[in-house]
């Protein structure tokens, strides 16, 4: 039996739902691993759940993730945490009571369990930074931003160090009208401080309030991870840019504008350098709400120009100097940087493009196709794309075909009506490399591949039917 793709995007098993991931590289017992600490979407009918789990991977292979189990449990709903190391102790900043009460728990092991919680005066979405000189800084806030230095106890705010609105905040009906609003570069939540080339980098969830056609933004949108930078940890932060957008592939229109192809939602995460390569860790949405989010990662470029400006994301260079950065592409491959092996079984859940259909737009629009969450802890389970209607396209970026064109493609598709399945290359309306009919009630699809297909490509499944309404559910596929 064929092997299944593992550690793609999302990089945890498809049954796991860990958003708000803060990545940290720690060395423990002589081994360096990347640990991810986040919320845990297990409540299913609201954000998060009542425990945290820890996942990690060796720094040499970001496709090989291991669950260390529950590291902290509570009687309340836990929002996004953060973990830092000082000395030989690991400190977890726990967001009890939906982020309204922040406590610090500790452990000698980066995987926990974290115990002996002590209440702090920090607030929503705490992000912690231990500087090179041992000083510790905390950042927090929701639609209003705060930061401060902490005492050596890792709990107490050092007197006189609290700063407000070093990043101007978002414009909402619940935001204060204090003159620190920003319609174009607004802090929303998800504080995450890091250091890059000696600069203090403040990563956060931005909320756009103005249209940005070049990014596919035509409504209020907080699907971005963005950043500012400074020479100081607590003030003078300068505009940086956007690192990540969880709205899927961006389609270019004739007028220069773009269109998202995946249903964006809230975003939270950070950047981490691992073995000389920087990555952004973020999350995507599944289901029909924001209660079953999943962990994603992408390689990013990081650079600094001669004037000290930091660039993070997809960087454009001119004469060797960085001149522009924009959000890195959302992909199916994640850390499989050469593309997903087309000869393995690939779940439809790795799609980063679910577009068109009866309702139109990203994820088919309201009531359109979407990825159905699964929770059974079975690593061979599929999280299918369901409620597909005619003219829906489901795309994967990218697959690796190697040096030989496959003979055929097979897929597990439940046909609710008679339909045609087209396989396209490189774009949703690109070269047709295979096509076949399915009868209502059938579940196995197979068709031959025409034309040469070698190397790395994006692949799209197009579903066509004369029937109205739902015509198919899509589970997995492989090339033979």
Structural summary, described in words:
The chain has 480 residues and is mainly beta. Helices cover 1% and strands 49% of the residues. The protein has one helix at residues 96-99; strands at residues 22-28, 31-37, 49-58, 66-86, 89-95, 101-107, 115-119, 127-130, 136-141, 145-150, 163-164, 186-196, 199-208, 221-230, 238-245, 250-252, 258-260, 270-274, 277-284, 294-304, 310-318, 321-326, 340-341, 346-347, 353-356, 370-371, 385-389, 392-400, 408-415, 419-425, 431-438, 444-448, 456-464, 470-479. It has a 7-stranded antiparallel sheet with strand order 1-2-3-4-5-6-7. Strands 23, 25, 28, 30, 31 and 33 form a 6-stranded mixed sheet that branches. Strand 14 (221-230) and strand 15 form a beta hairpin. The longest helix is centred in the first third of the chain and has 4 residues, at 96-99. The model has no long low-confidence stretch (mean pLDDT 95).
How many DSSP-defined strands? Answer: 34
How much strand? over 45%
User: How far from one another are the termini?
Assistant: 12 Å
The helix content, as a percent range, equals: under 10%
Q: Which stretches are poorly predicted, pLDDT < 50 over at least 5 residues?
A: none
Strand arrangement, largest sheet?
A: 1-2-3-4-5-6-7
């Amino acid at each position: 039996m064929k092997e299944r793709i593992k550690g793609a995007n999302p990089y945890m098993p498809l049954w796991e739902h860990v958003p708000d991931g803060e990545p940290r590289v720690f060395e423990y017992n002589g081994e360096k691993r990347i640990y991810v600490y986040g919320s845990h979407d297990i409540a299913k009918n609201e954000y998060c759940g009542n425990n945290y789990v820890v996942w990690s991977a060796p720094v040499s292979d970001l496709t090989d993730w291991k669950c260390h189990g529950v590291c902290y449990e509570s009687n309340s709903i836990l929002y996004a945490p953060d973990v830092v190391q000082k000395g030989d102790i690991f400190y977890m900043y726990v967001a009890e009571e939906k982020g309204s009460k922040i406590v610090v728990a500790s452990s000698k092991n980066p995987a926990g369990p974290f115990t002996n919680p002590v209440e702090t005066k920090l607030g929503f979405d705490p992000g912690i930074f231990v500087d090179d000189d041992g000083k510790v800084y905390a950042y927090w806030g929701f639609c209003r931003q705060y930061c401060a230095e902490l005492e050596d106890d890792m709990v107490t705010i050092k007197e006189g160090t609290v700063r407000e609105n070093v990043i101007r905040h978002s414009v909402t009906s619940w935001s204060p009208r204090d003159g620190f609003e920003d319609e174009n570069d607004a802090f929303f939540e998800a504080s995450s401080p890091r250091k890059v080339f000696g600069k203090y980098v403040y990563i956060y969830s931005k909320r756009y309030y103005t249209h940005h056609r070049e990014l596919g933004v035509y409504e209020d949108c907080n699907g971005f991870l963005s950043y500012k930078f400074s020479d100081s940890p607590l003030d003078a932060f300068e505009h940086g840019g956007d690192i990540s957008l969880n709205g899927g592939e961006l389609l270019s229109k004739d007028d220069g504008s773009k269109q998202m192809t995946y249903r964006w939602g809230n975003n939270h995460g950070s950047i981490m350098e691992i073995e000389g390569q920087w990555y952004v860790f973020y999350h995507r949405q599944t289901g029909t709400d924001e209660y079953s989010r999943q962990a994603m990662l992408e390689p990013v470029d990081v650079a600094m120009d001669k004037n000290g400006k930091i660039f993070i994301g997809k960087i454009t260079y001119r004469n060797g100097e960085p001149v522009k950065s924009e959000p890195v592409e959302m992909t199916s491959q994640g850390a499989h940087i050469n593309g997903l092996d087309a000869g393995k079984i690939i779940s439809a859940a790795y799609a980063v493009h679910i577009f068109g259909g009866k309702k139109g737009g990203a994820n088919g629009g309201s009531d359109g196709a979407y990825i159905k969450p699964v929770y059974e802890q079975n690593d061979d389970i599929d999280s299918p794309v369901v409620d597909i209607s005619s003219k829906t396209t489901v795309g994967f970026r990218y697959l690796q075909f190697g040096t030989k064109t496959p003979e055929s493609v097979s897929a597990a598709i439940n046909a609710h009506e008679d339909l045609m399945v087209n396989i396209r290359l490189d774009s949703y309306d690109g070269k047709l490399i295979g096509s076949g009919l399915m009868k209502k009630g059938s579940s196995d699809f197979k068709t031959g591949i025409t034309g040469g297909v070698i190397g790395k490509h994006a692949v799209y499944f197009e579903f066509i039917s004369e029937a109205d309404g739902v015509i198919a559910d899509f589970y997995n596929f492989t090339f033979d």
